[in-house]
Amino acid sequence: MKILAIVGSPRLKGNTNYLVDQALEEASKLAVDTEKIALSQYEVNPCLGHDDCASFESCLQKDDASWIFDRFREADGVILATPVYYYNVSAQMKAFIDRNYFLYMHDQKYKLRAVGIIVVADEIGIEDTLHTLKQFINELDAKEDRIFVVSGYATKLGDAKKNLPLMEEARNLGRQMAESLKEGT
Ligand SMILES: Cc1cc2nc3c(=O)[nH]c(=O)nc-3n(C[C@H](O)[C@H](O)[C@H](O)COP(=O)(O)O)c2cc1C
User: Fold this and answer.
1) What is the pTM for the complete model shown?
2) Looking at the predicted structure, is the pLDDT value of residue 51 above 90?
3) 128 pLDDT above the threshold of 80
4) Beta strand 147-153 with 33-38: parallel, antiparallel or unpaired?
């Protein structure tokens, strides 16, 4: 049983990564395997928008997206985590979401039984960012009661670590996701 986290922040020691680490640590205590993919460490180029995916066997963009999507499809649960950048997901996360279009056009199914969302902002834009991620998740067929959301405020490096309630919410998210995966077995 595995939870995969996809992280859209380029700050590897930043707030989003910190909260994701908390969630994964908690999930692993319940004997769930975990993996984190920080998108900034890979090449995930933007969608080319030719809108003809269905006629190709593989995406025309030759980069790391396809193996990330392989892992995504194999996971039992996923966490999508991003900082708010200009009132929405980071560019890294948006590119990842858009590239999912190829799988959508090929009717490729997911086996996700739990989904987590983690969003961090300095001040403004959390609602719009959550809306974007929830719309994306809708297409993954995840059940409503298996979607776990954490959002909160942090700015500088290390802020999330000092925000104890937010940290606890992230840990809870990891625990709840792991428990819900175990319930379903
Ligand atoms: C390019 C950029 C755009 C940002 N836009 C917003 C924004 O629209 N609203 C906001 O509240 N914070 C904004 N922020 C602040 C980040 O969301 C905030 O610092 C967050 O804690 C960063 O998370 P990280 O440490 O995981 O990278 C922006 C930061 C950057 C670098």
Assistant:
1) 0.97
2) no
3) yes
4) unpaired
Taking the C-alpha atoms of residue 96 and residue 94, their distance in angstroms, rounded to an integer, is 5
Cα–Cα distance for residue pair 1/177, rounded to 1 Å: 11
Query: From the alpha carbon of 153, which atom of ligand 1 is closest?
Result: 21
Rounded to the nearest 10 degrees, what angle do helices 15-29 and 164-183 cross at?
Answer: 40
> Is any ligand 1 atom within 6 A of the Cβ of residue 16?
yes
Quick one: pLDDT at residue 98?
97
Predicted confidence at residue 184, as pLDDT, reads: 63
Protein residue closest via CA to atom 2 of ligand 1 = 85
| Type of residue numbered 144 | E
Q: Please report, in angstroms and rounded to a whole number, the separation of the first and last CA atoms in the chain.
A: 9
Pairing state between β 2-7 and 33-38? parallel
* pLDDT of 75 higher than 90: yes
Percentage helix, strand, coil for the chain under 3-state DSSP, each rounded to 5: 45, 20, 35
